[in-house]
Design a protein that fits this description.
Helices cover 69% and strands 4% of the residues. The chain contains three helices and two strands. It has helices at 18-33, 35-47, 59-96, and strands at 8-9, 15-16. It has a two-stranded antiparallel ribbon. Strand 1 (8-9) and strand 2 form a beta hairpin. The mean pLDDT is 91.
Length: 97
């Protein structure tokens, strides 16, 4: 069976075909490859993943921060996967020639 046709669980927990995943990953990569995208991702990391909460943080605030961290993690993983998709496509073109 071809995995490209059948939906599979995605980075974000949703089911998509491999072709849909590849398109989404390369789209996210394109957004964050620009200078503005790199700076935006640095900003998002600074307010989420690199941010440390004090001991008196409420349960609600902690859950909100973890959700934001998770979202930035998804973006970073999609960027990585987008680079992998581009590399595979580049390798396919080279082997055809």
């Amino acid at each position: 069976m071809d995995k490209k046709i059948h939906p599979q669980v995605s980075i974000d927990g949703y089911r998509r075909t491999q072709a849909s995943e590849d398109k989404l990953n390369t789209t996210v990569l394109a957004c964050f490859l620009t200078d503005a995208g790199v700076e935006t991702l640095k900003y998002l990391r600074s307010i989420t993943i690199e941010s440390v909460a004090g001991f008196n943080i409420s349960d609600q605030e902690l859950r909100q921060r973890e959700g934001m961290r998770f979202l930035v993690g998804i973006i970073e993983q999609r960027i990585k996967e987008g680079k992998n998709v581009r590399a595979r496509e580049s390798n396919k073109r080279r082997t055809r020639n």
